[in-house]
């Protein structure tokens, strides 16, 4: 920061100042000029001298980021230069090493969820190294490897400013790419299985999109908890992965009706809980798969928003229906640390195996979106800042 001091004067008496005082400062000189005339002085009132200090910030740093100026398909994701300032009180600046791609990014791009302003930088998950900390901040330092998942949106960037209380430390044993691929999805799986509906030994659960990023983790975790896991997938290749992830029964929904198959597997009893991230195409069938007093957890809508459901439809079997959001389960700092800590602990112990099946340069985020949206991917997808490759 550069400080420039200047004097302004409004009266003409009492104090004499040389003309040179009002000029820009020059380098000192040792040259002596003989018989030099005295400088001409301007009378100024000492009582009306006002010192002005103007703060001039250094030029903002320019970084590359993906920007969205209008809603639409993957083509609206633009690779642009953006300005990045210094972190303020309670903030840190992070140079991203890996950025998680999630379906919620597509929802914001298409307008299913509303961005606060345009243009905006999408992305709600990243891992990086702290490059600067705001004044007075404790607990974080330059060089720390940190991760965040959720708000604020804006991870599709080489560097970003983050609230320090929204990041969590990444254990040294976990690679940044792995951490970026699992934090948001893992914390989603944690609150779905442990808090939204608490899965226990003996339960039977149905997981749609079982080979997807969240679905894969739900299957692994639910299996470890002692549940019988039924998963739906779109292809035989994904069926193999789902089986490997702990699904006891895998249904290829393009080849057989999943409601009929679930009814056969459960001998007509139904399942305790359905975890449905597909939405419109599976919603009614998911309700049909539930046993009496079963729990319908709708946490996504990759096929579109489900049709409205009358309360009378739930009364048939006294069903429970919820549409949860992870951010509501990690509001406090303690909740955030506990949720993230359990995810990282399960990765370290081998309970959760992370499949980073696809990586793309950040500049090619549009292609990554297109592939995820068309279900060409499985497991986790990670964007790597171009300079970090």
Automatic annotation (TrEMBL):
Superkingdom as given in the UniProt entry: Eukaryota
InterPro entries, per the entry: ADH-like_C, ADH-like_N, ER, GroES-like_sf, NAD(P)-bd_dom_sf, QOR-like
Single GO MF descriptor: mRNA 3'-UTR AU-rich region binding
GO cellular component, one term: cytosol
Entry-linked Pfam families: ADH_N, ADH_zinc_N
This protein's record includes keyword Oxidoreductase: yes
Keywords (A to Z) from UniProt: NADP, Oxidoreductase
Domain Enoyl reductase (ER): 72-383
SUPFAM superfamilies the UniProt entry points to: GroES-like, NAD(P)-binding Rossmann-fold domains
The keyword NADP appears for this protein: yes
Protein name: Probable quinone oxidoreductase
UniProt source species: Capsicum baccatum
């Amino acid at each position: 920061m550069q400080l420039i001091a200047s004097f302004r004067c409004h009266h003409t008496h009492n104090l004499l100042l040389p003309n040179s005082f009002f000029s820009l400062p020059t380098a000192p000189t040792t040259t002596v000029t003989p018989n030099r005339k005295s400088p001409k002085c301007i009378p100024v009132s000492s009582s009306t001298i006002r010192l002005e200090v103007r703060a001039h910030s250094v030029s903002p740093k320019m970084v590359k980021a993906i920007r969205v100026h209008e809603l639409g398909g993957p083509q609206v994701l633009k690779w642009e230069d953006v300005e990045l300032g210094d972190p303020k009180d309670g903030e840190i600046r992070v140079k991203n090493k890996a950025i998680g791609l999630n379906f919620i990014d597509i929802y914001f791009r298409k307008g299913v969820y509303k961005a606060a302003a345009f243009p905006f930088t999408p992305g709600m998950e990243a891992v990086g190294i702290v490059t600067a900390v705001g004044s007075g901040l404790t607990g974080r330092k330059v060089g720390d490897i940190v991760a965040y998942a959720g708000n604020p949106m804006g991870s599709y960037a080489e560097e970003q400013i983050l609230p320090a209380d929204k990041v969590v430390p990444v254990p040294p044993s976990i690679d940044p790419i792995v951490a970026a691929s699992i934090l948001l999805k893992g914390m989603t799986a944690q609150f779905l299985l442990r808090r939204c509906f608490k899965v226990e030994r003996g339960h039977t659960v149905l997981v749609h999109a079982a080979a997807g990023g969240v679905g894969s983790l739900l299957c692994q975790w639910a299996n470890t908890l002692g549940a019988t896991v039924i998963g739906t997938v779109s292809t035989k290749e994904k069926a193999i992965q789902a089986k490997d992830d702990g699904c006891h029964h895998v249904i290829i929904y393009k080849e057989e009706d999943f409601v009929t198959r679930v009814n056969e597997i459960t001998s007509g009893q139904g399942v305790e809980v359905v975890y449905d991230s597909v939405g419109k195409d599976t919603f009614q069938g998911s309700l049909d798969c539930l046993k009496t007093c079963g729990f319908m957890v709708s946490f996504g809508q990759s096929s579109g928003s489900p049709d409205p459901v009358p309360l009378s439809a739930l009364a048939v079997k006294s069903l429970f229906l919820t549409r949860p959001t992870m951010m509501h389960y990690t509001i406090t700092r303690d909740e955030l640390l506990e949720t993230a800590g359990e995810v990282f602990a399960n990765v370290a112990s081998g309970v959760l195996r992370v499949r980073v099946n696809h990586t793309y340069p950040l500049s090619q985020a549009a292609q990554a979106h297109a592939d995820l949206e068309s279900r060409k991917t499985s497991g986790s997808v990670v964007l790597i800042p171009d300079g970090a490759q």
